[in-house]
Design goal:
The chain has about 290 residues and is α/β, with parallel strands linked by helices. It has two domains: about 5-160, D-Maltodextrin-Binding Protein, domain 2 (3-Layer(aba) Sandwich), CATH 3.40.190.10; about 180-280, Periplasmic binding protein-like II (D-Maltodextrin-Binding Protein, domain 2, 3-Layer(aba) Sandwich), CATH 3.40.190.10. It contains nine helices and nine strands. It has helices at about 5-15, 65-80, 95-105, 125-130, 140-150, 180-185, 195-205, 225-240, 255-270, and strands at about 20, 55-65, 85-95, 115, 130-135, 155-160, 160, 205-210, 215. The strands form three sheets. Strands 3-2-4-1-5 form a five-stranded mixed beta sheet. The termini are far apart. About 25% of the residues are buried.
Protein backbone atom coordinates (compact mmCIF):
# COMPACT_ATOMS: atom_id res chain seq x y z
CA UNK A 1 0.00 0.00 0.00
CA UNK A 2 1.52 3.35 -0.99
CA UNK A 3 2.04 6.23 1.41
CA UNK A 4 -0.55 8.32 -0.40
CA UNK A 5 -3.13 5.52 -0.43
CA UNK A 6 -2.74 4.91 3.27
CA UNK A 7 -3.18 8.58 4.02
CA UNK A 8 -6.38 8.65 2.00
CA UNK A 9 -7.79 5.59 3.75
CA UNK A 10 -7.03 6.99 7.16
CA UNK A 11 -8.45 10.28 5.99
CA UNK A 12 -11.73 8.53 5.25
CA UNK A 13 -12.00 7.57 8.90
CA UNK A 14 -11.11 11.07 9.98
CA UNK A 15 -14.17 12.29 8.16
CA UNK A 16 -16.17 10.02 10.42
CA UNK A 17 -14.22 10.62 13.59
CA UNK A 18 -13.57 14.31 13.42
CA UNK A 19 -9.87 14.81 14.11
CA UNK A 20 -6.42 13.34 14.60
CA UNK A 21 -4.84 13.19 18.06
CA UNK A 22 -1.11 13.82 18.14
CA UNK A 23 0.28 10.84 20.05
CA UNK A 24 3.98 11.51 20.44
CA UNK A 25 5.96 8.81 22.27
CA UNK A 26 6.42 9.36 25.99
CA UNK A 27 9.41 11.54 26.63
CA UNK A 28 9.48 12.99 23.13
CA UNK A 29 10.26 16.70 23.01
CA UNK A 30 7.18 18.87 22.91
CA UNK A 31 6.40 20.44 19.55
CA UNK A 32 3.88 23.11 18.62
CA UNK A 33 0.60 21.64 17.44
CA UNK A 34 1.07 22.94 13.91
CA UNK A 35 4.37 21.08 13.51
CA UNK A 36 3.47 17.76 15.10
CA UNK A 37 2.04 16.30 11.92
CA UNK A 38 5.17 14.17 11.59
CA UNK A 39 4.02 11.98 14.50
CA UNK A 40 0.45 11.70 13.27
CA UNK A 41 -0.86 8.60 11.55
CA UNK A 42 -2.52 10.86 9.00
CA UNK A 43 0.61 12.37 7.47
CA UNK A 44 2.05 10.85 4.34
CA UNK A 45 5.62 11.18 5.63
CA UNK A 46 4.88 9.22 8.83
CA UNK A 47 2.97 6.42 7.13
CA UNK A 48 5.27 3.47 6.39
CA UNK A 49 4.64 0.84 3.75
CA UNK A 50 2.35 -1.92 5.00
CA UNK A 51 3.94 -5.35 4.68
CA UNK A 52 2.01 -8.08 2.89
CA UNK A 53 -0.73 -9.34 5.19
CA UNK A 54 -0.05 -6.66 7.80
CA UNK A 55 -3.09 -5.11 9.46
CA UNK A 56 -2.81 -1.45 10.41
CA UNK A 57 -4.58 -0.61 13.68
CA UNK A 58 -6.15 2.78 14.31
CA UNK A 59 -7.32 3.57 17.83
CA UNK A 60 -10.47 5.68 17.88
CA UNK A 61 -11.97 7.20 21.06
CA UNK A 62 -15.33 8.79 21.69
CA UNK A 63 -17.19 9.52 24.90
CA UNK A 64 -19.93 7.12 25.89
CA UNK A 65 -23.21 8.09 24.25
CA UNK A 66 -25.23 5.04 23.27
CA UNK A 67 -26.82 6.28 20.04
CA UNK A 68 -23.54 7.63 18.75
CA UNK A 69 -21.63 4.49 19.74
CA UNK A 70 -24.06 2.33 17.77
CA UNK A 71 -23.89 4.64 14.75
CA UNK A 72 -20.10 4.70 14.76
CA UNK A 73 -19.91 0.91 15.11
CA UNK A 74 -21.96 0.62 11.92
CA UNK A 75 -19.72 3.08 10.10
CA UNK A 76 -16.56 1.36 11.32
CA UNK A 77 -17.90 -1.98 10.10
CA UNK A 78 -18.48 -0.48 6.65
CA UNK A 79 -15.04 1.15 6.66
CA UNK A 80 -13.24 -2.07 7.62
CA UNK A 81 -15.14 -4.04 4.98
CA UNK A 82 -14.00 -1.58 2.33
CA UNK A 83 -10.44 -1.49 3.71
CA UNK A 84 -9.46 -4.98 4.94
CA UNK A 85 -5.92 -3.84 5.73
CA UNK A 86 -7.11 -1.49 8.47
CA UNK A 87 -8.54 -2.44 11.89
CA UNK A 88 -10.28 0.19 14.02
CA UNK A 89 -10.08 -0.21 17.79
CA UNK A 90 -13.16 1.59 19.12
CA UNK A 91 -12.90 2.84 22.71
CA UNK A 92 -16.28 4.23 23.75
CA UNK A 93 -16.29 3.39 27.47
CA UNK A 94 -15.14 6.77 28.76
CA UNK A 95 -17.92 8.86 30.40
CA UNK A 96 -18.44 12.31 28.92
CA UNK A 97 -17.52 14.04 32.19
CA UNK A 98 -14.15 12.24 32.27
CA UNK A 99 -13.32 12.47 28.58
CA UNK A 100 -11.28 15.67 28.53
CA UNK A 101 -9.21 14.63 31.54
CA UNK A 102 -8.54 11.25 29.94
CA UNK A 103 -7.29 12.89 26.74
CA UNK A 104 -5.17 15.38 28.69
CA UNK A 105 -3.49 12.54 30.59
CA UNK A 106 -3.14 10.08 27.71
CA UNK A 107 -2.00 12.08 24.70
CA UNK A 108 1.13 13.66 26.23
CA UNK A 109 2.11 10.21 27.55
CA UNK A 110 1.92 8.74 24.06
CA UNK A 111 -0.93 6.36 24.85
CA UNK A 112 -3.83 8.37 23.51
CA UNK A 113 -5.96 7.69 20.42
CA UNK A 114 -5.08 8.23 16.79
CA UNK A 115 -8.56 9.56 16.05
CA UNK A 116 -11.03 11.09 18.49
CA UNK A 117 -14.49 12.65 18.60
CA UNK A 118 -14.93 15.84 20.59
CA UNK A 119 -17.34 18.69 21.19
CA UNK A 120 -16.34 21.42 18.74
CA UNK A 121 -16.12 23.98 21.54
CA UNK A 122 -13.11 22.12 22.92
CA UNK A 123 -11.06 22.58 19.76
CA UNK A 124 -9.19 25.84 20.58
CA UNK A 125 -7.76 24.60 23.87
CA UNK A 126 -6.95 21.18 22.37
CA UNK A 127 -5.01 22.91 19.61
CA UNK A 128 -3.20 25.15 22.10
CA UNK A 129 -2.42 22.10 24.27
CA UNK A 130 -0.95 20.21 21.33
CA UNK A 131 -3.49 17.39 21.57
CA UNK A 132 -4.48 17.63 17.90
CA UNK A 133 -2.76 18.41 14.62
CA UNK A 134 -4.04 19.93 11.38
CA UNK A 135 -5.57 17.59 8.84
CA UNK A 136 -3.29 17.17 5.80
CA UNK A 137 -4.34 19.64 3.12
CA UNK A 138 -3.26 17.34 0.29
CA UNK A 139 -5.96 14.88 1.41
CA UNK A 140 -8.55 17.31 2.79
CA UNK A 141 -8.34 19.95 0.09
CA UNK A 142 -10.33 23.17 0.59
CA UNK A 143 -12.42 22.31 -2.47
CA UNK A 144 -13.32 18.85 -1.13
CA UNK A 145 -14.15 20.16 2.33
CA UNK A 146 -16.37 22.94 0.97
CA UNK A 147 -18.18 20.52 -1.33
CA UNK A 148 -18.79 17.70 1.15
CA UNK A 149 -19.41 19.44 4.48
CA UNK A 150 -21.96 21.89 5.82
CA UNK A 151 -20.99 25.54 6.43
CA UNK A 152 -20.41 24.58 10.08
CA UNK A 153 -17.02 23.27 8.97
CA UNK A 154 -15.77 26.87 8.99
CA UNK A 155 -15.62 26.57 12.79
CA UNK A 156 -13.09 23.75 12.33
CA UNK A 157 -10.45 26.12 10.95
CA UNK A 158 -7.98 27.76 13.29
CA UNK A 159 -5.27 30.15 12.11
CA UNK A 160 -6.04 29.07 8.56
CA UNK A 161 -5.61 25.35 9.22
CA UNK A 162 -8.29 22.65 9.33
CA UNK A 163 -8.20 20.63 12.56
CA UNK A 164 -11.57 18.88 12.73
CA UNK A 165 -14.54 17.81 10.63
CA UNK A 166 -18.18 17.84 11.80
CA UNK A 167 -19.83 14.45 12.21
CA UNK A 168 -23.02 15.43 14.04
CA UNK A 169 -24.60 18.76 13.19
CA UNK A 170 -27.68 19.63 15.21
CA UNK A 171 -30.72 20.93 13.39
CA UNK A 172 -32.92 23.15 15.52
CA UNK A 173 -36.66 22.65 15.10
CA UNK A 174 -39.81 22.90 17.20
CA UNK A 175 -41.55 19.57 17.73
CA UNK A 176 -45.10 19.58 19.00
CA UNK A 177 -47.59 16.92 20.08
CA UNK A 178 -50.80 17.19 18.10
CA UNK A 179 -52.74 14.97 20.49
CA UNK A 180 -51.83 17.10 23.51
CA UNK A 181 -52.65 20.28 21.62
CA UNK A 182 -56.07 18.91 20.76
CA UNK A 183 -56.66 17.87 24.38
CA UNK A 184 -55.86 21.44 25.42
CA UNK A 185 -58.45 22.81 22.99
CA UNK A 186 -55.91 24.03 20.44
CA UNK A 187 -55.86 23.46 16.70
CA UNK A 188 -53.07 20.93 16.06
CA UNK A 189 -52.87 22.05 12.43
CA UNK A 190 -51.95 25.58 13.49
CA UNK A 191 -48.84 25.42 15.68
CA UNK A 192 -47.32 28.62 17.11
CA UNK A 193 -45.49 30.85 14.67
CA UNK A 194 -44.42 33.64 17.06
CA UNK A 195 -42.98 33.74 20.57
CA UNK A 196 -46.22 35.20 21.84
CA UNK A 197 -48.21 32.31 20.38
CA UNK A 198 -45.68 29.82 21.75
CA UNK A 199 -46.06 31.27 25.24
CA UNK A 200 -49.85 31.20 25.15
CA UNK A 201 -50.11 27.69 23.74
CA UNK A 202 -47.44 26.33 26.10
CA UNK A 203 -49.38 27.65 29.09
CA UNK A 204 -52.61 26.19 27.73
CA UNK A 205 -51.00 22.76 27.26
CA UNK A 206 -49.45 22.67 30.75
CA UNK A 207 -51.32 20.49 33.26
CA UNK A 208 -50.68 20.05 37.00
CA UNK A 209 -52.07 17.54 39.47
CA UNK A 210 -53.72 18.45 42.79
CA UNK A 211 -50.31 18.64 44.49
CA UNK A 212 -48.96 21.02 41.88
CA UNK A 213 -46.77 18.46 40.15
CA UNK A 214 -46.52 18.45 36.38
CA UNK A 215 -48.68 15.95 34.54
CA UNK A 216 -48.00 17.62 31.20
CA UNK A 217 -45.24 20.14 30.55
CA UNK A 218 -46.40 22.61 27.95
CA UNK A 219 -42.88 23.69 26.99
CA UNK A 220 -39.96 22.47 29.13
CA UNK A 221 -36.74 24.43 28.65
CA UNK A 222 -33.88 22.23 29.84
CA UNK A 223 -30.45 23.79 29.39
CA UNK A 224 -28.79 20.44 30.08
CA UNK A 225 -31.05 18.94 27.41
CA UNK A 226 -29.67 21.15 24.62
CA UNK A 227 -31.98 24.13 25.12
CA UNK A 228 -28.84 26.27 25.30
CA UNK A 229 -28.62 25.85 21.52
CA UNK A 230 -32.05 27.47 21.22
CA UNK A 231 -30.79 30.39 23.30
CA UNK A 232 -27.47 30.78 21.48
CA UNK A 233 -28.47 30.21 17.89
CA UNK A 234 -32.13 31.28 17.80
CA UNK A 235 -33.18 33.60 20.62
CA UNK A 236 -30.05 35.76 20.55
CA UNK A 237 -30.43 36.36 16.83
CA UNK A 238 -34.18 36.83 17.19
CA UNK A 239 -33.53 39.63 19.67
CA UNK A 240 -30.93 41.22 17.41
CA UNK A 241 -27.73 40.00 19.05
CA UNK A 242 -25.03 38.13 17.12
CA UNK A 243 -23.81 35.25 19.35
CA UNK A 244 -20.11 35.48 18.44
CA UNK A 245 -17.71 37.83 16.71
CA UNK A 246 -17.03 37.19 13.04
CA UNK A 247 -13.72 35.48 13.89
CA UNK A 248 -15.40 33.41 16.65
CA UNK A 249 -12.93 34.69 19.24
CA UNK A 250 -15.41 36.66 21.34
CA UNK A 251 -18.69 35.68 22.96
CA UNK A 252 -21.16 38.52 22.47
CA UNK A 253 -24.16 37.27 24.44
CA UNK A 254 -24.22 40.31 26.74
CA UNK A 255 -22.97 42.87 24.23
CA UNK A 256 -26.37 44.55 23.98
CA UNK A 257 -29.75 44.77 25.65
CA UNK A 258 -30.94 42.26 23.05
CA UNK A 259 -28.71 39.60 24.57
CA UNK A 260 -30.22 40.13 28.01
CA UNK A 261 -33.72 40.12 26.54
CA UNK A 262 -33.02 36.79 24.85
CA UNK A 263 -31.81 35.29 28.14
CA UNK A 264 -34.87 36.56 29.99
CA UNK A 265 -37.07 35.03 27.30
CA UNK A 266 -35.40 31.64 27.75
CA UNK A 267 -35.89 31.83 31.53
CA UNK A 268 -39.46 33.05 31.26
CA UNK A 269 -40.90 29.59 30.55
CA UNK A 270 -39.48 28.28 33.84
CA UNK A 271 -39.85 31.32 36.08
CA UNK A 272 -42.97 33.19 34.98
CA UNK A 273 -44.99 30.95 32.71
CA UNK A 274 -44.07 27.73 34.57
CA UNK A 275 -44.53 25.46 31.58
CA UNK A 276 -41.87 22.97 32.70
CA UNK A 277 -39.51 21.93 35.49
CA UNK A 278 -37.51 24.71 37.08
CA UNK A 279 -34.28 22.75 36.67
CA UNK A 280 -32.02 25.73 36.10
CA UNK A 281 -32.75 27.06 39.60
CA UNK A 282 -33.46 23.82 41.44
CA UNK A 283 -30.13 22.15 42.18
CA UNK A 284 -29.32 21.06 38.64
CA UNK A 285 -25.74 19.70 38.90
CA UNK A 286 -24.98 20.96 35.39
CA UNK A 287 -24.98 24.57 36.58
Amino acid sequence: MSHQTRAVLIGMLLVLAMLVAACAPAGAPAQPAATEAAVSEATTEAAPEAAAGEVIEIEYWQYNFEARVKAMNMLIEQFEAANPGIKVIHNSDIPYDDFRDKIAASVPAGVGPDVVTLFYGWQPIWVDSGFIVPLPEDVFTPEMVQEQFSPMVEASYQDGQLYTLPTAVRTLALFYNKDLMEQAGLDPENPPTTLEELEAQAVQCTKLDDQGNYEIMGFPVSMSGQAHHWFREVLLRQFGQQPYSDDYRQVLWNASDGGYAAWNQALKFQTELKTGDNTLFDGDPNF
